[in-house]
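Listing S7. Sequence submitted for prediction.
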Amino acid sequence: MKWFPNCCGRYRQSLCLLASGVLPESEKDQIKNHLAACADCRKYYGELKAVTVPLTNWEANFAHLQPGANDRIRWAQAVQAAGSPGPLYGFTPVGAVIEWWRDVIWPCRRVWAGLAVVWMVILAANFSLRERSPAMLKSGASSEMTMTLKAQQKILAELLTDHSVLPDADRQRIFLPKPRTERVELLIA
């Protein structure tokens, strides 16, 4: 962990400009004085110089390389195509649906297909269950089933009732005020 702020951070951009040879003369003296005093910045400047020197002489190093006529034509066409505006399409509902299809549906088409299959299965199950329930109510076996279901509901209601709660008559009897004599006996006993 550094305890002191980096004082050389403000010189980094100027060192890059000095290494590439485009630093203004008014700032060169200040940067050179700092380089004389700071070893880290001298190292950084040396690394920058190692990269920028070959790049400053690139014309001399690559003068023998000339692109062919086909390459020049291909580059010229690419530059012209990049500069010319593309075809403009008007807003149409069909075009909007096609764009939406390409952006939303097509990249995730397997997910959408899976969701469609799930919805079809749910829809088929819903229709198959809907068709059976009226037929079951009309049959004779369904009336027996309904009676059995009601009997089971009564048994379940009896089992679920809370027997710890007293009826209203018992509640009133418990909370009636007692005569003073009964209260005194309780205190004595």
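Caption to Listing S7: primary sequence and predicted structure tokens for the chain studied. Residues 92 and 170 are 79 Å apart (CA to CA). Residues 108-163 form one domain.
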